[in-house]
Write a structure and sequence with these properties.
The complex is a heterodimer of chains A (333) and B (325). By secondary structure, chain A is mainly alpha-helical. Chain A has 2 domains: 68 residues; 242 residues, MetI-like fold, CATH 1.10.3720. Helix content of chain A is 76%, strand content 0%. Chain A starts with a helix and ends with a helix. In chain B, 33% of the residues lie in helices and 23% in strands. Chain B contains 12 helices and 12 strands. In chain B, the strands form 2 sheets. In chain B, strands 6-7-8-3-9-10-12-11 form an 8-stranded mixed beta sheet, with helices on both faces. In chain B, strands 2-1-4-5 form a 4-stranded antiparallel beta sheet, with helices on one face. Chain B starts with a strand and ends in a 7-residue tail after the last helix. Classes of the chains: A mainly alpha (333), B alpha/beta (325). Chains A and B meet through helix 10, helix 11 and helix 15 of A and helix 2, helix 4 and helix 7 of B.
Amino acid sequence: MLRRLIIIPISLFFVVAFSYALVEIMPGDPALAIAGNTANEREVAIIRAELGLDRPFDERFVRFFTDIAQGDLGRSFFDGQIVSHEITRYFPASVEIMVLSLLFAGLIGLSLGALAGYFRQRAPDSVARIVITALQAVPEFLIALLLIFFIFYLWRWAPAPIGRLSLTDTYPPVVTNFLFIDLILAGDWNGLRSTAHRSVLPVATLAIGTAAYFAKVARATIGAAMSSKQVQFARACGLSEFKVLQYALLQARGPIITYTAILVAALVGGASIIETMFSWRGLGQWGLQAILNKDVPAIQGFVIATGSFTMIVYLALDLVVAALDPRIRHDRG
Amino acid sequence: MSLVVKDLETRFITRQGVVYAANGVNFTVGDGEIVGIVGESGSGKTVTINSILGLLDPAGRVRNGSALFDGTDLLAIRRRELRRIRGARIGFIAQNPFGALNPMLTIEDQFYNVMRAHRRADRTEVRQQALEMLRRVGIAGPERTLDGYAHELSGGMAQRVVIAIALLLNPPLVIADEPTTALDVTVQRQILDLIKGLIREGQRSMLIVTHDLGVVAQYCDRVVVMYSGRVVEEGPVAKVFTRPLHPYTLALLRSVPRLGTEVQGLGGRVPDLLSRPTGCAFRHRCAFAKESCAVATPPTAAIGPDRAVACVLDVEREVPALVVD
């Protein structure tokens, strides 16, 4: 366990270094981008000096790491905002959409996968396999467009994809930066209803796309468990099919949790296109904008935030899996 | 108790085609009898017991036949009724205890689940019975075993737990699928002695699948020899082993290593079961094969009061006696 904890800062160092190098070697000059087309060379040089870009590479590199070690991620090249503040502002929105989508995706995907796994090689399995393959083949942005077209444009069942609250709603005072929680804390039930309504399309988009992955892993693991010796013995002992399925689920639990953790890590910051399409104003949308602006400190902040989040999730995964599996639990004790 | 299996035919539908795994299997297990099914891998031993117990893969189908267990046809009753028989009236001893036991549940939970599948019982009651069973299968610290998990046990101990679970509800028939092949050689005999003792003591019957002729010789009353999804010979162990009537049985017995003599391998391979066998399936490896062997599957003929063989040869005269030194 201790070894895993030591590995975290080391891998984080490599993530940061890699992202720094990546931005360095990328073509394009942020000073030029900020100054705009009409600026002359002197103006560009001033901006470059302000940003510290005129210093040699090694000096900037060391500065960068000392700052990060002190929790200072710098200011955005683009709008001068403090990057660490921006991250605390946008990160919760990404967590909210991730949690909601995974909840629904898990519900749909695991049921579908369990059905297919239990009835493997029979009719329900064939149907589920077609559904899973179809869902995996459709890119998420297309799902989003279809949902927007039908559910918003044609049928008007959901509001326009223009943000988390309507123009007439007022944002609650910021307490946690989680909009749902802040609305509840403010007692703004109309606002809560409004944002829940506006969450339907983006959450549905991500949930549908992610459900396919859940279904796939559940189908494979539960299917394998159903033909295992363990299930055979349970049946030979006369256990009910309900209990037998429970045994299979116990066996499939580890891989499914592992997969969930991977999806948790992937969806925070990784849902940039969907966040942008629905103006969700989450970390992914912010990170994507930073990349388009070649906003170096913001990109690096984004990489560090998502990187550390991923590592924390994987650490938690190890702990959970170990706690659930008596074989691992005992090895340690 | 009696188990009468008749004309059992089981097929598997696979991508490669239809696998003819059991092609008319006949045998009986009488009251208080221990019957061994022997044969090479792929001879249909395990498929036969899985068919009887309704434990086939989804690809497997019983096409024909019956398995009368005290008059009830296990192949014809509803799944729910079969479930009530499994575990309660037919105990099952699995091949690999670590594959069979649930690694995520305590041993006590597994006893509890089996008991609750058949009877109303509370935890303390089940615990008492489980402790009693574990003592009977020779586990020294039954309390500790019950509170622990399968991975904390040795192979022999884990198999004892499986036996205890199989006998928990006092079934009159026990089916064992290669119960010792996954274990160390040193504990195999202990486990087999234990199983036999418990079977005799409870006046139970047992059907044991094995590829080990030594196991059959020492622990069984009767033997059923299977080849390519058929029973080729059946009879009392003492008679079959001293005077085999089917060339395959003879070859099997000759392939057993004996001190001071050269092992005679069987030669050839088990035929693949992707095509329905025509004629005698063993003829390609048989030293006594004649042209007529290819024409039709040899019918099973009774030899004396308690033996049967499926071979066209006049076995009494044409198959030589096994030379045992």
